[in-house]
Backbone:
């Protein structure tokens, strides 16, 4: 493998040479005699007898000789044997492991697999996720005018989009009214559809009419039904085992009963559903990535519950650093009021600050941990200069 | 809107109260008399007469009174009017702008749109991208045994995956042999398919048989055909205008002639094709995000061409910082040999260091700019502690 140019005997140096033949990519190579050169295309195999390549920029084409043969002037000699030649195996050695199990197969990995001819590889099955909204007050987003106490169903479209974003197969179970009958029918549909993860929203608070909790207590094993966190206190998790029967293997469905408040449901989705999906999809290290960020404003902490505070992270020069210095410090900017129905606080949020339950106000400039909930590679970045490294 | 609990007249304080009625989510509220309370579910509307809510945790259910009416003990009084009540409009004010044009519509944004009943919004059309590999030496990845000089087509599968990752509609144009006829046929297929962006690989070096360059010079306007960068020197960009005719509007197709080396094609895809796709898809700020990172090893710079050096970024505590301090400094770890055919150097790379063309070796610990080419939220993170802010 080599660059476009002329295959040469490196000891021949500069001068005028006859172009003996063309060594083209995909064709078998010829044999080169000293004192002559061979045209060679990118990817062409080095002809026998040649030991280096001179790039085309370092040559000039000459008029053909009296015998009609092509001729070329080499202006800059090869530095020695092997110049501009890539040895077979310099990319990937025979027998080398090109990918480890448990990694994501992205574009570069697809290319690697194609290179080594691995056109069929074992991957984890795509998890199947279903989303169900519940509540008598919840109406379709298409509803023009809301009746008293009614709210449009933000959760379902949002969680369906988030679920699709994980690569999962997704089923929309609609809105169930607050009756045990409707909920049981939806649960049965999820079982029939062989759903791996069922997400419900609403119906998990402590109220007498919180039917999702009642349903799960009746049909599944509830592992927790209340979490000391803000938002997301009513978060409920259950596992429903479907016994096998003739022709139907036993299955297990994870059920996340997310709170009805849209922000609570989105935060708890990121903190609990996403890692579960990643685990089912075979990720070696599921879960949100933790970074550290400096706060840009004072934050009053909740004395009773640890809070997941929605912020937008930006890159910034560390405070006090000299003008020319650039560094990777992250600054957390709040996304507005944090009450749990305020979906505006999720807009453009790319991280959740992990704030402890302490009776105090956290001053601006504090460094706190943050969990990434969105792709930072698309986040806003203030104009920063590219590298200008002096030749000192 | 309020939490599960009892709607009260806040001045009534603690004590035993009759539960006058239930104010359920989705039903019209009743009217509350002082000295009584009303059960209220999450999302229920505050009854007339009530001015606060006491959460269910701060109450005890009592045996019914002699009249058979439900009774409850309030153990912790509301702090005053408005306690645990969310005013109408506290989430989104009437007339407020919830989203600006030019942003990505992610899950949270879908939820916001559903909340305000915006079930139909204008979005940019998905760009249509086609991928074509070229070269007599290039064979399908399914080829078991390679002939002399043959290589399996890594580029096409890789670029198709990368193109799909941008959300674009994708067409696979296969492999074209090094003949003008085959290339012209493929170009015509792309025009017929109304492709917005055509990506080719190979055939753009300086060689006499670099047919893609010849093809583009004949049929399109070549804007550049060589770039001073490493890898990616042969990168070629052209625009092909298809004149309108009866029943067919004029169209414009962007053509990126990427180099045939897999790493060169992947790097130039990220640096040039991706921002073009983002622009076509309506991104307000297309392009890779620039961060700054500290190098973990010495890097020998190329004296002639600026280099895009493939690295994996990790988070690390800044060097010299005390043990307890955590910060967002990024450390760049090389992904192995950087020669342009070595696809292993792309595996797990999430950034490209921007290295200037200078005759020097960059010492380990230098801070250089880096362009993000992958989602950092999935990148490896060393175990870092969550926030533990003392109550000082």
Residues:
């Amino acid at each position: 493998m080599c660059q476009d140019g002329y295959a040469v005997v490196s000891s021949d140096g500069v001068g005028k040479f006859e172009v003996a033949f063309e060594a083209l990519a995909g064709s078998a190579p010829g044999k080169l005699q000293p004192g002559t050169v061979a045209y060679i295309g990118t990817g062409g195999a080095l002809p026998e007898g040649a030991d280096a390549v001179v790039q085309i920029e370092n040559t000039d084409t000459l008029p053909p000789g009296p015998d009609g043969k092509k001729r070329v002037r080499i202006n800059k000699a090869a530095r020695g044997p092997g110049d501009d030649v890539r040895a077979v195996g310099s990319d990937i050695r025979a027998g080398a492991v090109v990918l480890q199990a448990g990694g994501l197969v992205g574009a570069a990995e697809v290319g690697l697999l194609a290179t080594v001819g691995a056109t069929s590889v074992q991957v984890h099955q795509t998890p199947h996720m279903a989303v169900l909204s519940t509540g008598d007050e919840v109406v379709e987003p298409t509803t023009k005018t809301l009746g008293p106490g009614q709210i449009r169903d933000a959760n379902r479209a949002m969680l369906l989009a988030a679920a699709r974003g994980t690569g999962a197969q997704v089923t929309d179970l609609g809105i169930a009214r607050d009756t045990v009958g409707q909920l049981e029918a939806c649960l049965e549909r999820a079982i029939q559809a062989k759903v791996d993860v069922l997400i419900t929203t609403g119906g998990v608070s402590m109220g007498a009419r919180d039917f999702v909790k009642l349903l799960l207590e009746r049909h599944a094993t509830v592992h927790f039904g209340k979490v000391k966190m803000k938002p997301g206190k009513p978060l409920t998790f259950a596992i429903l085992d479907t016994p096998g029967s003739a022709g139907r293997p036993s299955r297990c469905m994870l059920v996340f009963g997310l709170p009805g408040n849209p922000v609570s449901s989105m935060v708890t989705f990121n903190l609990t559903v996403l890692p579960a999906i990643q685990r089912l999809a075979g990720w070696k290290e599921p879960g949100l990535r933790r970074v550290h960020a400096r706060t840009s404003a004072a934050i009053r902490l909740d004395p009773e519950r640890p809070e997941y505070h929605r912020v937008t992270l930006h890159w910034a020069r560390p405070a006090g650093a000299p003008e020319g210095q650039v560094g990777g410090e992250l600054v957390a900017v709040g996304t507005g009021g944090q009450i749990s129905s305020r979906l505006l606080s999720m807009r453009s949020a790319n991280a959740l600050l992990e704030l402890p339950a302490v009776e105090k106000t956290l001053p601006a400039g504090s460094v706190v941990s943050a969990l990434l909930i969105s792709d930072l590679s698309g986040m806003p970045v203030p104009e920063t200069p590219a590298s200008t490294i002096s030749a000192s």
In short: Residues 50 and 336 of chain B are 69 Å apart (CA to CA). Helices of chain B lie at 107-115, 154-165, 180-192, 211-219, 262-280. The domain at 290-378 of chain B is CATH 2.40.340.10 (Beta-clip). Chain B has a mean pLDDT of 86.
